[in-house]
Amino acid sequence: MDTKLTFLAAFDDLMRNAKVLQVGIEPEFRRFVGNQQECQRKWRDAETELDRIKEKVKALEEENSLLKTKLRHAHVQIEREADERRRIEHNKLELVCFH
């Protein structure tokens, strides 16, 4: 019984495959090719967008580095001015104490 069922299933598969060969799948294949072309276009667009974003990130990183440098210079300048103010106030107090 199992052998007959196996032969019947094999025959059914053979008949389905034969039908595909007789009818053809050109319309499905053309849709597949069209979809692949669309996927390739989207892929190229995505790569172009990635390159654009990488350039933007690079420019922003350079700008960030420049701003960090300016900030460090401003901190140094503020510290110098604070040190100078403290020195002047100290000298002023010394002059007041001597008089």
Automatic annotation (TrEMBL):
Coiled-coil region(s): 36-77
Keyword Coiled coil: yes
Keywords: Coiled coil
GO biological process: one example: Rho protein signal transduction
Molecular function terms from GO: GTPase activator activity
GO cellular component: a single term: nucleus
Superkingdom in the source lineage: Eukaryota
PANTHER family reported for this sequence: RAC GTPASE-ACTIVATING PROTEIN 1
Protein name, per record: Rac GTPase-activating protein 1
Species name: Mytilus galloprovincialis
